[in-house]
Design a protein that fits this description.
Layout: H1 2-21, H2 25-45, E1 60-68, E2 72-77, E3 82-86, E4 92-93, E5 101-105, E6 116-119, E7 136-146, E8 149-154, E9 159-163, E10 169-170, E11 179-185, E12 194-200, E13 206-215, E14 218-223, E15 228-232, E16 238-239, E17 248-253, E18 260-267
Parallel strand pairs: 4-6, 10-12, 15-18, 16-18
Antiparallel strand pairs: 1-2, 1-5, 2-3, 5-6, 7-8, 7-11, 8-9, 11-12, 13-14, 13-17, 14-15, 17-18
């Protein structure tokens, strides 16, 4: 009898423990719902995710780690957009830190977690299906806005639709008739080019003028107001034809600091 009572008491305690500390199914459901919502948002905002490439049955993301959370990484992909990638105990991961260039593989298109996340040297960067060129510069006039797109007429008279999102740097409130300079990348799909920046021409970030001196990698440009602006270029600067003293140019720069980095220099 005492043995039976003892067994019953232990069973009761275990039952209470299971009820008190057992897994709450709503917790996992809520977490899965958040992950699924993030996956769908990534696909909507990042056309690259819709195109499986390289090897494997699922999509591949390549980019730089900008943030690390307990269960995910935020990665800026080759189109310049931020993607949140979730991992679980089965994900093959190297020791990743912010700033690392990584390759993320999924084992199927709808997988909520990455199959592997590995570092990838920059010189080994692979071009995804459809190609993602370096940002290009488009100069023109704003014709109209349509939801998340600006329609501009470029210098050749062609109408171009530029897609923007919350990561796009836009110079104030653009209105029809504004002269602008946009830095864009083309995603590997039939969607409009994505604008990384759109600045008004002759604003602090996009100046027009004449090159009056070249000192190594530094250019001195006299803007339309007669002010001399000094900018420096490096391997990250986009440039078309070789720029010479006397050329009229448009310079897109990251700031109006006394010695600002030129993101792009193009001849007029």
């Amino acid at each position: 009898m005492r043995r039976a009572i003892g067994i019953a008491a232990v069973a009761a305690v275990l039952g209470m423990s299971a009820q008190t500390y057992g897994l709450d199914p709503t917790f996992d459901q809520d977490r899965q719902r958040v992950i699924e919502q993030q996956r769908l948002e990534n696909q909507r905002n990042n056309p690259n995710l819709m195109n499986p490439n390289l090897s494997g049955a699922g999509p591949v993301i390549e980019g730089d780690v900008t943030r690390i959370d307990a269960d995910s990484y935020v990665i800026r992909d080759l189109s310049g957009r931020d993607v949140r990638v979730y991992f679980d105990p089965s994900t093959v991961r190297e020791s990743i830190k912010v700033g690392d260039h990584v390759l993320v593989r999924f084992d199927r298109p709808s997988a909520p977690y990455a199959a592997s996340i590995t570092r990838r040297p920059a010189e080994m960067t692979a071009t995804p299906t459809g190609g993602l060129p370096r940002p290009q510069t488009i100069e023109g006039e704003v014709l109209r806005t349509e939801a998340d797109n600006y329609v501009i007429r470029d210098l050749s008279g062609k109408e171009i639709r530029l897609h923007v999102d919350k990561t796009t740097k836009v110079d104030g409130n653009l209105t029809p008739g504004d002269k602008v300079v946009a830095r864009v990348v083309s995603p590997p799909s039939n969607t409009p080019p994505y604008a990384k920046t759109i600045y008004k021409l002759n604003s602090a970030q996009a100046l027009e003028g004449q090159v009056i001196a070249i000192e190594g990698n530094n250019y001195i440009v006299r803007d339309i107001n007669g002010v001399e602006q000094r900018v420096y270029s490096d391997s990250a600067t986009s440039a078309g034809e070789a720029v010479m003293i006397g050329d009229r140019v448009v310079v897109v720069r990251g700031s109006n600091a006394p010695m600002a980095h030129a993101e792009a220099i193009s001849k007029r």
